[in-house]
Amino acid sequence: MNEFQVSILFAAVVAGAAPIILATLGETITERAGLINLSLDGSILLSAMAAFVTAYLTHSVAVGFIIGALVGALVAVLVAVFSIYLSQSQVAVGFVLTLMARDLAYFIGNPYSRLQGPQVMPLPIPLLADIPFFGPVFFNHNWPVYLSLVCIGILTWYMYRTPMGLALRAVGEHPKAVFARGMDPKKLQLFYAVCGGLLVGLAGATFSLSTKPGWGRPQGAEGTGWIALALVIFGGWHPVKAAIGAYLFSFLQVMGIYLQGWLPSIPTQVFQVAPFPLMIFTLLLISLAQKEAFLARVEKMPWIRPFIQMLSGTPPSALGKPHEAE
């Protein structure tokens, strides 16, 4: 491939990763606060449906995005309230909500299936879009793609450079210490669950109004929530590493499209499914990277040590454990 074709390839990767990044960052915030939201897959579908239907009825993409974000936040609130305040299993509540939200999305959205609706228009950034190679890759997209790029930097700065970010990480590690400092861990967890849900809702809206415009069954976003949950682990609960994982997954998906044309004798289903087992294999490597016996062997192989260090990461200590004031 020449330089132009390579730039088009990477531009497709950046655009395709936008909703995955938004969902992954949303779940990173939530899990950093100590709460597991397993409703992501259903929440993304419900938000995608709500955003498209709203945009179709109001003829406003902006209103569609707002409604999509609010739907994602509403599902996250249900997870938080049931698990934090009613002491129900976060895993069980998440599974039930993802199934309910998925079926609800298909049921309510059925009359609007396969309709031509509004979508986000391209918004090239003047001057920057004309930069060779980097212009088409990063500066010739629509605003949800730019939002996904900006959110990576903002969330990293917020989590590691601000007092509020310190409180976010502290409530996921030591909620009792946060309580001792005069803050309410439950309110903090609820707040960050809503923030994460807003990003997940924006991810759903990005699917139906930008990445794969329209609504139908299947919509094309199925399975994204589970991938986002895996990418949070892949990134070691760090926004930048999680975003790298999202771009890697998007790259595998885009390459699958190219490989279908290069290798027509291989069934297309192979290329469509390939990114998922590759992500499972990566998660296996991450699990090994946290074992002392494996790390001891890696010490003798300095060439692989940086790669293992990049994959290593430990979950927040209080993840999935509701705080009970003594």
Order of helices and strands: HHHHHHHHHHHHHHH
Average pLDDT metric = 86
- Helical amount among residues, as a percent range? over 70%
- The count of DSSP E runs of length 2 or more, i.e. the number of strands, is 0
Structural class: mainly alpha
In quaternary terms, these chains amount to: single chain
Please tell me how large the radius of gyration is: 20 Å
Give unreliable regions as ranges: none
Q: Number of DSSP helices?
A: 15
Largest sheet: none
What is the overall shape?
A: globular
Tally of discrete structural domains: 1
Amino- and carboxy-terminal Cα gap? 63 Å
User: What would the CATH topology be?
Assistant: ABC transporter involved in vitamin B12 uptake, BtuC
Beta fraction of the residues? under 5%
CATH architecture: Orthogonal Bundle
- CATH level 1 class label: Mainly Alpha
SSE blueprint:
Elements (H helix, E strand, L loop, with lengths): L2 H30 L7 H19 L2 H25 L4 H20 L24 H5 L4 H19 L1 H11 L1 H6 L4 H27 L12 H11 L4 H24 L5 H6 L1 H15 L2 H7 L6 H7 L15
Structure characteristics:
326 residues, mainly alpha, ABC transporter involved in vitamin B12 uptake, BtuC, globular
Q: How is this structure best summarized?
A:
The protein is mostly helical.
